Predict the structure.
Amino acid sequence: MFSGIIEGLGKIKEIKKKDKGLCFFIQSQFKSLIVGESISIDGVCLTVIEKKKVPLGTLFKVDASEETLKKTTLKDIKTGSLVNLERSLQIGSRLGGHFVQGHVDSTGELTQIEKQGNSKIYNFSYPKFLDPCIVPKGSIAVNGVSLTIVDAKNKNFSVSIIPYTEKNTNLGEKKISDKVNLEADILSKIILKQTQDILKFKYVRKKL
């Protein structure tokens, strides 16, 4: 479980094919990574399987399966790319963002950037099946970054990005048409599922 508060940027140093998946070697500023721990990479929960101390941090390795590559932007990452990194939450930690699982629902596309004072409004497209979970003033993770939805219409939602977020995540590098990983708020997904189950149950009872 993560919070969507990015701890740092990692650099992809090497990519290797493994069966139908990929292995990523990532340079990070972390000094205390543990083999076997979960780490969020652009919002995707993966496992540290190897690590090596290097100047200014740790070089670590993660594997991404074929299924993960199909549903996320990791298949498009190149050597030298910067990725958002967050280690898993610890019990007792402050929750500055919202509960993020690292289980990406789908990818979206950056469709527009507008200046608004000192900040910028980013617009992203999203697939139709996420529509019930995209709620104005609700939470969403974009490339693992916890953000608040400003508005949503026509299968696009907008978020406000402050200069700090642009500088300290890879969202500041994104250009129009670039793809991002999207994870809807787990609470909205639970409520949606329970509501669907209740309505389905009532429908079945009515037919009986």
Remarks:
- The chain has two domains: 8-87, 106-192.
